[in-house]
Design brief:
alpha/beta; 4 helices; about 180 residues; globular; binds magnesium ion; binds guanosine-5'-monophosphate; Rossmann fold
Length: about 180
């Protein structure tokens, strides 16, 4: 285990088993519907690749990149830095996310994709932190891998200062690391 990790929450094997379960559900739900899986970079890349490998019906993939800029207010606003390239009109869209926390980014992404007139938009997140939700956010994920407590996790795509994304497991970072 990496020296900066306090505790492993989910091992590589547990994550892969969970992905098999989620992908089996999505495969049945979207069989014959030609779904398009949309990933929001970059945290989702490991989960995204492992998920779509297990989808057993014809599908397509696409990616978006968000960016936040500090506006005149205290909170940064989200903007689309790189949009999906496919035409989503009439398509069944599944947003894949690494972690659902405050709900700001997924609400923004969902609204942005809905403006492209898809047939449907659903959300599948590997991790959900229900305690992190901002007041006023009503959106919930349709498919959730694990509900986790309100702790900062890294690994399996999730970063701290762009590090730890390469860890094959998900763990809680030692507090000394971000207090340094
Ligand atoms: P939100 O739901 O807060 O709008 O967006 C979730 C995003 O916040 C994730 O995509 C991720 O970048 C970041 N995030 C939230 N919680 C965590 C966490 O525990 N660890 C890491 N590494 N990123 C997190
Ligand atoms: Mg992210």
């Amino acid at each position: 285990m990496h020296q900066d990790i306090k505790k492993v929450l989910y091992t590589e094997e547990q994550i892969q088993n969970k992905i098999k379960e989620l992908a089996a559900v999505l495969t049945e739900e979207y069989r014959g519907k030609n779904p398009i899986f949309v990933g929001v970079m970059k945290g989702v890349v490991l989960f995204f690749a492992d998920m779509v490998k297990r989808i057993d019906t014809p599908c397509q993939i696409d990616f978006m990149w968000l960016s936040s800029y500090a506006g005149t207010g205290s909170t940064g606003n989200l903007i689309v830095k790189r949009d999906v390239s496919a035409n989503l009109k009439g398509r069944h869209v599944v947003i894949l996310e690494d972690i659902y926390d405050t709900g700001r980014s997924l609400t923004f992404v969902r609204d942005h994709l809905l403006s492209k007139e898809p047939a449907s938009v659903k959300i599948c997140t590997l991790l959900d932190k229900p305690e992190g939700r901002l007041p006023g956010i009503t959106l919930e994920a349709d498919y959730v891998g694990y509900e986790i407590p309100n702790e900062f996790v890294v690994g399996y795509g999730l970063d701290y200062n762009e590090y730890y994304r390469n860890l094959p497991y998900i763990g809680i970072l030692k507090s000394e690391v971000y207090e340094k």
